[in-house]
Each structure stands twice: as structure tokens, then as C-alpha cells.
Amino acid sequence: MADKMALAKAINESLRRALESDPKVLIMGEDVGKLGGVFRVTDGLQKDFGESRVIDTPLAESGIVGTAIGLALRGYRPVVEIQFDGFVFPAYDQIVTQLAKMHARSLGKVKLPVVVRIPYGGGIGAVEHHSESPEALFAHVAGLKIVSPSNASDAYWMMQQAIQSDDPVIFFEPKRRYWDKGEVNAEAIPGPLHKAQVVREGTDLTLAAYGPMVKLCQEVADAAAEEGKNLEVLDLRSVSPLDFDSIQASVEKTRRLVVVHEAPVFFGSGAEIAARITERCFYHLEAPVLRVGGYHAPYPPARLEEEYLPNLDRVLDAVDRSLAY
Amino acid sequence: MTVESTAARTPRRSAGSKAGTTGTKRTRTTAKKDAGTEPQLVQLLTPEGKRVKNAEYDKYVAGITPEELRGLYRDMVLTRRFDAEATSLQRQGELGLWASLLGQEAAQIGSGRATREDDYVFPTYREHGVAWCRGVDPANLLGMFRGVNNGGWDPNSNNFQLYTIVIGSQTLHATGYAMGVAKDGADSAVIAYFGDGASSQGDVAESFTFSAVYNAPVVFFCQNNQWAISEPTEKQSRVPIYQRAQGFGFPGVRVDGNDVLGVLAVTRWALERARSGEGPTLVEAFTYRMGAHTTSDDPTRYRGDEERQAWEAKDPILRLRRYLEASNHADEGFFEELEAESEALGKRVREAVRAMPDPDHFAIFENAYADGHALVDEERAQFAAYQASFADEGGN
């Protein structure tokens, strides 16, 4: 029963299913109602579920997350949309000081099943604050879970699982992949939310990525294959928790690891992966874990973003450097 | 368009240009209260303990019995006694910190007693009197100040949320909760406490916006105790705080926060508005924090004795006692019994605090997540192995 649909449509279908199956699920955000969101991810939901389930909010991100916390305390399961990555910071205080900690502070008495959807990342030629990848800033905070699907099927199922989770989940949507189509089987039994997947088997080196960079890594593996290199590609899917067991298993096989993400390399998720995999796989590694990502600079204007973002050549270069050890 | 074109023709100077050269004089850095904007307080009981009539709010306390009045007095006395005990416990090293409510008993008891069992309260970290009204064991309030937990009670058993340290955050939680109440079709109300300093926070403004837009059944209860640590109210607002509600489209009222009867009446009015679908209200309880902000604070550095002395004359407890005595609603025996009850409460709280066990070491990892987290599991296991290593060495 698999349908082919765009990633954005898969999220839309997933939200629709959640609204249908649980009356406590709410959608909240700026422009999510009549407009259907600036990316149309919530298209048609207000029409079918009404203004009390799909709520257009004032333009106030802290207010969106703060009131979602209150609604969760009342027993609702809000799914809030932050319109763009760079707009999450007005809500950062509520997410970090309140949403992440209230379960622990209440010694487990209070649950906060809030999903914060953030379209993130670059490559769409947008203006300032519309192309950032702030996932590491959230992953550093205990109490939050961070996931990012790379394809339509995962987008569909991971959203279902995020909404069902009793923990707050920051759901990073790779906006440059919104229009990529893939098979979605709504009857399938999905794997665990925080498990990585090998999306291409290989023997010479492991490329690990999540969200928008998975597709790039698959292209890199195709290109490397033409040169006779057999790369494995891991879709991490979850940034917190990170599935180190799967990375370790892959690295024990390939003995080399390159991590790719759009976010700045400095203090990014690649640093955490490199450190832990070095601990776990010290005697297996033939080369240091290498990272490819953004620079320690503000996200550049659109005409420069192709220089800033990891691309085929930059990742291939890292692959060559690793294999040269 | 007109404004823009005018602005384009008029040379504008930067804020950094020298005063005197622009034609605008900057004579002060803090806006002073404009003369004539000081509002009348709603007051039902004067500092001398005289009952004064109020056409608008009398009806909300019309049926109050002598027994209920004694109850309010008892609540305030016991709350003050508990607060004094906690301050002493901090001085004796039993608590890491304490935020005293001294002087704010009427604001808290009056508003707390106005709530119904199914209402929900979102406090700051100073609402010990409201907690008392909600039936939270006072000893439980001390766990976080002793450092054995970050909360200490189940928010849902008394509909009294955990204390919130970050200023103003809880007003949004209250608003969201109230939106949920309205969705459920329930007629409960929600009350959010915050201070005059918090009124400057963006979250408070956003909660006003959301509650107004969604007509949420929430009462914003600002205890204006005149000082946000060392910053006076003048540093927070150019207009009286209650007047801010007007710009958001709902009513605000200022009540004498040291008049328990007035606070009870005004809060009942506001909660009834919420219950009957009329939306949010801002109540500003005009009161005074007689002590320090917390036990880490030294108010002698920023305010004079005269100010406190002037407010002592408006003491909320003394005021009700005068009224109870003058109206023969309480006899000497009542006050003596209450004195004994106060001492017993102090003793019980002191003993409870000293008996609080330190948390188990593994509590660090507990409840970080509801559904678990692989990294937490891994680090807990490492921690356990580390702890166990001492036993291997034959140590204790």
C-alpha cells in the first residue's frame, strides 16, 4: 500500500493521522491554519479539523512553546511549528529552561509530550536566519530528544513516533528535501525512532549523516564507486540520543568514518561522534574520524551558501584524506 | 506614508549625540511617575482595621463569616511563622537559600483562598502562602531550597505547579493551561503569579497577548512588592502595572495587597470573570516585601529604613487583628491558641527539614526522560561502575 509522496506531504499525512487518532493532539504555529504553513506542511488540516485543533498563533515564538507547555500540562499533545530555524531562539529559553526540565523537576509526575517542528538547513537560497542548523544547541540539553528524517517514509513514521513520545522532541525537518518524493507505506511497522539505518552497505569507509546530508552522502558513495571505492552510508536519523552502537558496528567493519552535517563543525554533533567513536573503536580505526560541515562563521548570504555547505567535492576530499592514512 | 515622508525631511540624530545640540534635553534616565496617575487602591480594610464600603467589590465578600475571617487571620499568621522558621533554618545552614514572603501574606492568602479546588495555580518561587492555601505541606516547599530536589511536590495533587525560578516563564504555562481548560469546556480558572520585575519580561507580555487572543480563563496576579532585588518598580514601568492590561484588551485592577479582604474580593471577581468566559484579568496587588529578596540579598544597600517603617504601619496581619478585635469576632483565647499552633508548626517544619534525607546518588539520572535515553543509560552504568570501584578497594 505504499504511496509515493514528497517529504512535506508525508509530514502532512502523518499530522493528519495523529489528529484523527488522538483528540488531544493539537497543531500550533504562525500561519499553520488557512495558509497551511509557509511550506504548506499543514495544508488543509485546519479546514478538516477546525481552528481549535489547528491553531494559528500570534507571532511570538516563546509564547508558542510556553503555551504548548501549559497545554501539555493540561493533557494535550501539542505539535508546534517554528517557521524557520533562525526563529527558534526567542523560544530557546522556554525550550531549555522549562520544556526540557519539567519532567525531572517533578520527579516524573509531569510529562511534556510536546513536538517542536523546525524546518532547518540551507540550500534554498533564502535570506538571513532561514538556513541554519542549530541541532547541536538542543542536543546539548538533557531532557530533549532531537530527530531529523532524511526521506518521506521516515518523515511520516518518525513524526508519528515523536507525537506519541512522552518526552519533548525537537523535530528538525530538512527543508531542502521537502519536495523530494519517496515511498510511504502507512501500513508498515516502523523501526525504533532513535535507531540509525544503513542506507548503503560498504566496506571501505563509513559516511555518517542525518537529515539533508544523507542524500548528499549517497551521491558521494555513487561517485566514489566509480573510482572503485566501496562506501557505507549511515542515516543517523536521531541526534539525541545518538545510536553509537550502529556507528560502532559500521566502523568496526570499515575502519574509517567521515561525519557530514550542515551545522558548523566546531562543537557540532560530528565532534561528539568523533570523540565517542574514538573511545569505542580506538583499535579498529585506520584513520582519525573526519568531519565535513559548515564553518565557524555566520551562515553566509545565499550567493555564498554553496561554498559554505558540504558538497560532493568536499566530502569526497575528506574520503580521500581518510583513505590516505 | 505621511510619517515616513516627514521623517525623511527631518534630520535625525543618533542616540549618542550630545545632549543640548539636538534640541531635546535628557534630564533623567528613569521615567518618573506622572503626577495624577497614582490610582485609587481597592481597599476594604484600612490599615487601622476599619471596614470601608466599596460599591463594586463588597458583594464578593458579603457573606463572609467571623469564622472565615479568623481563618484568613490564622492562614496569615501560620504562613508568617513558617516563613520566619525557614529564614532561621537558612541562617543555621539547613537551607541553601530562602525567599521570604514577609509582608505579602494578605496578597497570597487573599488570592489563594479565592481559588477553587479545581482551579490551577502557577507560582513563582515565593508563593508559600498560596501553597498553604492549596494544601501543599509547607515542609515540601523546602526541599528545593535545601537542595534535595528541584521541586518537591506533585503539581497535580493540589493543582499547584512547581516553583518557577526563571522570571515570568510560568505566565505562559498558565495561559496554555487555561487554553486547555477552555478547550475541555471546564469552568475552572487558572491563576498565574508574578512580580513587578517580571512585568518587564517578554514572556509576560506574550502571555497577555495569547490570553487575550484566545480569551483564556486566566488571572494574572502581580504582587508588586516594590522591589525586584534592588530595582524599584520605576525601573520596570512608566505606568502603574495594572494599567498595562488595557493595551492588551482586558481589565486590570490595583488592590491594596496588604488588605486580605480586598484581595479576596478582587481575586474572586477576576476568577469569576474567567469562569464565566470573560477572559483574562490582571490584578496588581500593591504590597511590600519587608525582608530581603532572598537570604543572599542585602536591602540596606538600596533602600532606607523609613520606607519599611511606613509599610510596617500597613501590616496585613495587624490590620485584620484590629478588625477582629474591634468587631468582637475573635477573643483572647483564639489568639493564644493560634500562638501555640504557630510554635508547633515551626517545630514540625524544623524537624522535617533536618530529617530530609539526601537524595540517592542515582537520582542524578532519574526522570531526565520519560521514555529513557541511551546516553543517560550509558552514563548511569559508568557512574555505577565508578561507585562500585570503591567497594572493590575494600573502602567504605
TrEMBL record, chain A:
Domain of life: Bacteria
Protein name: Pyruvate dehydrogenase E1 component beta subunit
Record keywords, A-Z: Oxidoreductase, Pyruvate, Thiamine pyrophosphate
Keyword Oxidoreductase recorded: yes
Organism encoding this protein: Streptomyces collinus
Domain Transketolase-like pyrimidine-binding: 5-180
InterPro entries assigned: THDP-binding (IPR029061), Transketo_C/PFOR_II (IPR009014), Transketolase-like_Pyr-bd (IPR005475), Transketolase_C (IPR033248)
Entries under SUPFAM superfamilies matching the protein: Thiamin diphosphate-binding fold (THDP-binding) (SSF52518), TK C-terminal domain-like (SSF52922)
EC assignment: 1.2.4.1
Pfam families (alphabetical): Transket_pyr, Transketolase_C
Cofactor(s) demanded: thiamine diphosphate
Automatic annotation (TrEMBL), chain B:
Keywords: Oxidoreductase, Pyruvate, Thiamine pyrophosphate
Record field: compositional bias (Low complexity): 13-24
E.C. number: 1.2.4.1
Keyword NAD in annotation: no
Key word Oxidoreductase present: yes
Boundaries of every Dehydrogenase E1 component domain copy: 74-355
A Pfam family: E1_dh
GO terms classed as biological process: branched-chain amino acid catabolic process
GO molecular function, one term: magnesium ion binding
Domain of life the protein comes from: Bacteria
InterPro entries reported for this sequence: Alpha-ketoacid_DH_E1_comp (IPR050771), DH_E1 (IPR001017), PdhA/BkdA (IPR017596), THDP-binding (IPR029061)
Positions of region (Disordered): 1-39
Principal EC category: oxidoreductase
Cofactor dependency: thiamine diphosphate
Record's protein name: Pyruvate dehydrogenase E1 component alpha subunit
Protein's organism: Streptomyces collinus
